[in-house]
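To whoever picks this up:

The parser on our side crashed when reading a file containing two proteins. I've narrowed it down to the boundary between the first structure block and the second sequence. Both blocks are reproduced below exactly, byte for byte. First block:
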Amino acid sequence: MPPPVNTPSVESMAAQVHGRLRLALMRSRFLPGEKLTLRALGEELGVSATPIRAALARLVSEGALEQHDRRSVRVPTLSDARFREVVELRMDLEGKAAARAAERAQPADIARLEAIHAAMTAARLDGRAEAMMLENERFHMALCSLAAMPVLQRMVEGLWLQCGPLNAGLKSIRFLHQPEEHPHHDVIRALRQGDGALARLAVQRDIAVYADALLRRLPAMNAARRTVDAA
């Protein structure tokens, strides 16, 4: 008699789908106002409707998605007030993580951040916007991980989850500084010097400069959402 085949449970499949969709939202794979259906996601992920429905319900409870109807959800469009709140919390939490990272970072950690930023810069110069954004996310998550504060990091990931779709607007925003002036350089210098205050200020400046640019785009994005809803 052949040994039983181990098949993933619905719970484990739902967890996998949740992880994939969560990462896709953080990395701007979906746009504000975009509708996601069980059928389309099932075809894309090769998974039945049951684990997808469970994963989507979890993302709705996390505030990352909005329930549209029984078979679909929608990526929310942030209001001005909510976006400002998310940005303020990111600056507080990521600033704290950067300051703690400056106390703990080893040469190998700093070299890793330098390599990530170099890849981000290369993608920017080559016009590969999605790759640039991916490397930027990797930089921020790696910096948070150096703080060794897992609760804080999970909170930061939750904030990225909410503003990730809006960050897709960065693809069409002109660069606001030259590559050599990027705040990441100050973050790396602060870590090398063990200067927590500088690390905090540098990462906060990095968040703020592009948040301001995105904030100016919110009216247009909300107008586009209203057009989709009316269709």
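<<boundary where parser fails>>
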Amino acid sequence: MEKLICLLWREDGADRDAFNARVLSELPGALAAAGVSGIRINLEDEIAARGAHLRQSRGGVQHDGVVQFWLPSANALFRAAIDAALAAVCARWTGWVVAESTIIPNTLHPARAGQRTAGWAQLAFLVVPPGMSHADWLCCWQDDHTRVAIETQANFEYVQNLVVRPVIDDAPPYVAIVEECFPEAALTDPFVFFDAVGDPARFKVNLDRMMTSCDRFIVRGSIDVIPTGQYTC
């Protein structure tokens, strides 16, 4: 089995809520009919939009939706129906085969088929900084930063997806896609986000530790970070 993560862009000027509704109503069934499983869709919905100030951009028009799923083979020979299902609900799409690593499984607010997961999901799309080898970057991210992310945040799900290969030629140069779920209050309250409610000293320690760790393998302004609602289909 292989996992794909695909990004979807809506038509210029298209209404976001209408786009979200179409993706949720049409795409899961079409993908399931094409033979995929484990479908998850991430969209900037009404709740997640309150965290727009948390968004980061590396430039260009950011995507409007993300779909994750599993299939027996991501070989283009067997993807025709899948590619068609994706193209039918958006203006354009791109995607990657990824290797998934679940660091924190969601046991606090388990995802349920056909429902939106509680809270919100932060998706981060990472690139290797100029002058840094992929091996050194991977060591900083997975071997060192993983523990920092666990210990300094109120994330109740944490999934690392290491990019294996793109399935579309013009895919952005992401090397990893991270999904972390947080309580809804963390959209607007950094003390909740950094697991330090009522404790300014802990907040400073966690924030400083997180920023120091991120600066080792991320150049600020070079990644995309988008708050989303997580939907299990």
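After patching the parser it read the second block fine. The CA atoms of residues 124 and 225 lie 4 Å apart. The mean pLDDT is 97.
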